[in-house]
């Protein structure tokens, strides 16, 4: 049997049942965390039961908690998440109920509650106080097991609601980030497609410009050829005319010479 040097609470976590499933897709990955501090610090935790759903099992994991007059054992059943862990249920157990129970032991199913304070299932624990002044040393009576009492405190419920809001905000942030990534990818795709369209439009414009330039060049070439041909015809006519006039003048000169003789 383990020995304890000071007031100690031994917590044995067996499992839970009837829990609300807070996981939107798949089954929740549940673990139990607890503390005796009113400022909700120094939590101890069980391992995570992956895919536990509403009935996690923690296989009698055992923890020792030092006691120094704290009034409550604060329990929280959590769902492990990628962003912020979600609270499934919570409860508080008055430590005096344990100390003054026969054998200073309570073992059974304790009610737990949703963050809104509604019934949220049960957690199966064995709780034993050691070295606490005035604790009940009478042996437990199996025929009359003590009531496994649990309740909520306002401060603890405020914390539970805060945990719920934090998880919801983390989910919303993750969804927004995912949406922004999708929008960014869409904008990039549109930009790439738009750039491709611009390149095609530029190419088409260049082809059109080239076609227009070629057509304009063809017209200029035809015009130039026509002008050259017209000049050539005019020149030929002029040469023929000059030859004709020259020939006609030469005949007149010969007649005049004959007449003189």
Map the helices and strands.
Blueprint: E1 8-17, E2 30-35, E3 44-45, E4 57-66, E5 72-79, E6 86-94, H1 95-99, E7 105-113, E8 119-130, H2 154-260
Tell how many strands the DSSP assignment holds.
Answer: 8
Structural class: alpha+beta
- Our measurement of the CA-to-CA distance between the termini, rounded to an integer number of angstroms, reads 175 Å
Largest sheet: 4 strands, antiparallel
| Radius of gyration over C-alpha positions, nearest whole angstrom | 51 Å
Order of SSEs: EEEEEEHEEH
Low-confidence stretches: 252-261
Shape: rod-shaped
Mean pLDDT: 85
What is the overall number of helices? 2
Q: Bin the helical content.
A: 40-55%
Strand order of the largest sheet: 4-1-8-7
Q: Report strand %.
A: 25-35%
Oligomer: single chain
Note down, in words, how this protein is organized:
- The structure is a single chain.
- With 261 residues, the chain is of the alpha+beta class.
- Helices cover 43% and strands 25% of the residues.
- 22% of the residues are buried.
- Residues 252-261 have low confidence and may be disordered.
């Amino acid at each position: 049997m383990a020995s304890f040097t000071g007031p100690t609470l031994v917590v044995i976590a067996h499992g839970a049942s009837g829990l609300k499933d807070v996981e939107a897709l798949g089954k929740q990955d549940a673990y139990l965390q607890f503390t005796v501090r009113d400022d909700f610090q120094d939590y101890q935790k069980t391992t995570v039961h992956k895919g536990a759903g509403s009935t996690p099992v923690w296989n009698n994991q055992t923890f020792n908690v030092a006691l120094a007059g704290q009034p409550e054992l604060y329990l929280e059943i959590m769902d492990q998440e990628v962003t912020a862990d979600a609270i499934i249920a919570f409860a508080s157990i008055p430590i005096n109920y344990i100390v003054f129970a026969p054998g200073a032991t309570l073992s059974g199913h304790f009610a737990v509650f949703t963050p809104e304070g509604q019934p949220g299932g049960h957690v199966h624990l064995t709780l034993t106080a050691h070295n606490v002044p005035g604790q009940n040393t009478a042996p437990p009576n199996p025929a009359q097991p003590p009531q496994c009492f649990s309740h909520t405190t306002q401060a603890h419920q405020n914390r539970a609601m805060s945990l719920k809001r934090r998880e919801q905000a983390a989910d919303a942030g993750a969804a927004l980030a995912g949406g922004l990534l999708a929008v960014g990818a869409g904008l990039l795709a549109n930009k790439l497609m738009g750039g491709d369209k611009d390149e095609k439009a530029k190419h088409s414009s260049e082809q059109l410009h080239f076609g227009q330039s070629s057509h304009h060049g063809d017209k200029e070439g035809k015009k130039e050829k026509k002008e050259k041909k017209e000049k050539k015809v005019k020149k030929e006519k002029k040469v023929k005319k000059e030859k004709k006039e020259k020939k006609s003048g030469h005949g007149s000169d010969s007649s005049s010479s004959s007449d003189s003789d």
